Amino acid sequence: MTIYDVTMPISGGLPVWPGDPPVIIETTSGPGEPRVSRISMSSHAGTHVDAPAHFLRGALTVDRLPLKVLIGPAWLADIPGEVAITEAALLDAGIPPGTERLLVRTRNSQGPVKPSHFDVDFVGFTVDGADWLLAQGVRLVGIDAPSIERYISPGEPVHRALLAAEVILIEGLALAGMSDGAYQMMCLPLPVADGDGAPARVILIRDGS
Q1: What ranges in 45-165 are assigned the alpha helix state H?
Q2: Which residues make Cβ contacts (< 8 Å) with residue 209, sequence separation at least 6?
Q3: For residues 159 and 54, is the Cβ–Cβ distance under 8 A?
Q4: Which residue numbers are catalytic?
Q5: Helix or strand or coil: residue 131?
Q6: DSSP string spanning 148-179?
Q7: What is the domain-level CATH number for residue 156?
Q8: Alpha-carbon distance values, 37 to 27, 40, 116, 159, 193 (Å)
Q9: Do 148 and 134 contact (CB within 8 A), yes or no?
Q10: How would residue 127 be classed by pLDDT, with cut points 50, 70 and 90?
C-alpha cells in the first residue's frame, strides 16, 4: 500500500486568489515559552473544499458535508494537453462509468508553484464539462487549480451548476507526478461551523500488490 499526500503545504508564500487575504503565519509566544502561532488565511486558500454554501444561500455548509462522499474510491484522470476541461476532453480521458469521485490532473501540475505568484491562465472546467459530470452522477470532483472553472467565468456557471446539485468541489490539489487510475481517497476539510469552505488534507491510497 502506498499513501500519497496531495495537499498543498500552507505557508506564507502560498499564492491566493486576487483580492483574498494573504496567508499569514506568525509566532505569538514570547522567548522561552512554548511556541504558539497565529494563522490567518482565506477559507479558500491552498487545497480546500467548496461547499454549496459558497455560492448558494441556505445551502449545505462545509461542516455538514457527508463523510461518505469525502472518503472512498476515486479515479484520477490525466488531461494534460487541454486549455479547458470540456465534455470532449472528459470523454477522451478513459474515465470508468459509475465514477463518483473524480480528480483531474492538468497542465496546471507541470510547473513549480512560484511563491506569491497567482497564475490566471490555469485550466478549469467548461459548462459542458460540468454538465457531463452531472449526467454521469459524479458526486465529488477535484482539480489541480485554484478554481474548478477558469479565471474569467462571468456568473460562475460551473460552480453554480455543480454546487446546486450538491457536488463537492476540491480545489488546489497537488497532483504533480501522480499517475492516473484508481485510488482510495480521504478528504477531510476542517469542520468550520456554517462555513462556505475550508482547508482540507487530501490523501490518496493505492494498493501496491
Answers
A1: 67-70, 87-91, 127-136, 157-164
A2: none
A3: yes
A4: 54
A5: helix
A6: SB-S--TT-HHHHHHHHTT-EEEES---TTPP
A7: 3.50.30.50
A8: 4, 10, 21, 34, 22
A9: no
A10: very high
Domain enclosing residue 73, as ranges: 2-8+43-206
Number of neighbouring beta carbons within 10 Å of residue 101: 23
How distant, in Å, are the alpha carbons of 43, 49, 111 from that of 191?
Answer: 11, 11, 31
The answer to whether the beta carbons of residues 128 and 87 sit under 8 Å apart is: yes
Residue 136 is placed in which grid cell? 454521469
Kindly state whether residue 47 falls inside one of the protein's structural domains: yes
What is the count of structural domains for the chain? Answer: 1
C-alpha distances in Å from residue 67, one per residue of 121, 133, 187, 201 = 32, 20, 8, 13
Parallel, antiparallel or unpaired: strands 2-5 and 37-40: unpaired
Residue 27 lies in a domain: no
Give, in order, the Cα–Cα distances in Å from 83 to each of 67, 88, 102, 149: 32, 12, 19, 11
C-alpha 106/C-alpha 83 separation (Å) is: 9
Percentage of residues of the chain with pLDDT beyond 70 = 97
Q: What is the mean pLDDT of residues 72-100?
A: 95
Secondary element (H or E) of residue 77: strand 71-78
Q: Is 15 a domain residue?
A: no
- 149 pLDDT more than 80: yes
The answer to whether residue 144 sits within a structural domain is: yes
